[in-house]
């Protein structure tokens, strides 16, 4: 008998029977409403109590495409291929150069701006001034606008960590099962921007140190679980990662360049350095590593 697994979750024949019965009993239900109903039936929630309906929709579509069940027709379609949002409306702000020392810059304020009026400004600054532009994160994520006085000086984004990452996984030393259970306790830094008109020595490493001191607490407040490990990628053809190393991040190795679920073993994208930062001395134990 074929064993079905989706993102580490085993789908049993009983599960399939439950799903088919739910669909048959609610033929007019939308796919989104169906995923919410499945989450309720399975008590499938995030640690903060929010239903895992996005993951559930992915599971239902995967089962549908595999011929294991038949979903109701989608209620909304488009001829355009789906792409994550990569644009943001420009926002004009003061770009007068800031050239000073870290001490003279004064106190920095860290604003978590996701789902606040300042999120538009954060998105715009990344879209206009980061070499990778802006891309809306998927999954758990937080966005920080760093302000000196009344002027933004930096943007820092954090999101869910990649599921499999060889250099990191070898350094942590966890099993595949432990990784699947604890991957949510890692945070990935996809964007870090010091605004181009801000020239303050040591500002970047200072911001990273401040972030490491507060991120787990903020994550706990919003997602009801802590963070024990931070990670990022550095393109060695563009950057040396000096600010990360100055903030005591650890160089773990390099990516293969094959990307997520690459169909071949050939590099298809730039090879990058992998850097990590443990937030606690006992991070391995917290991530399920057994001695």
Q: Can you walk me through this structure?
A:
The protein has 291 residues and is an alpha+beta fold. It has 2 domains: 62 residues, no CATH class; 189 residues, Aminopeptidase (3-Layer(aba) Sandwich), CATH 3.40.630.30. The protein contains 10 helices and 11 strands. Strands 4-5-6-7-9-11-10 form a 7-stranded mixed sheet, with helices on both faces. Strands 1-2 form a two-stranded antiparallel sheet. α2 packs across α3. The longest helix has 21 residues. It starts with a strand and ends in a 5-residue tail after the last helix.
Q: Which CATH architecture of the largest domain?
A: 3-Layer(aba) Sandwich
Q: What is the ordering of alpha helices and beta strands? A: EEHHHEHEHEEHHEEHEHEEH
Estimated helix fraction: 25-40%
Radius of gyration: 22 Å
CATH superfamily of the largest domain: Gcn5-related N-acetyltransferase (GNAT)
What is the CATH topology assignment of the largest domain?
Aminopeptidase
- Round the mean pLDDT to the nearest integer and report it: 90
Overall domain count:
2
Shape label = globular
Terminal CA distance reads 35 Å
Query: Count of helical segments?
Result: 10
What summary fits the major beta sheet? Answer: 7 strands, mixed
For the secondary structure, the number of strands is 11
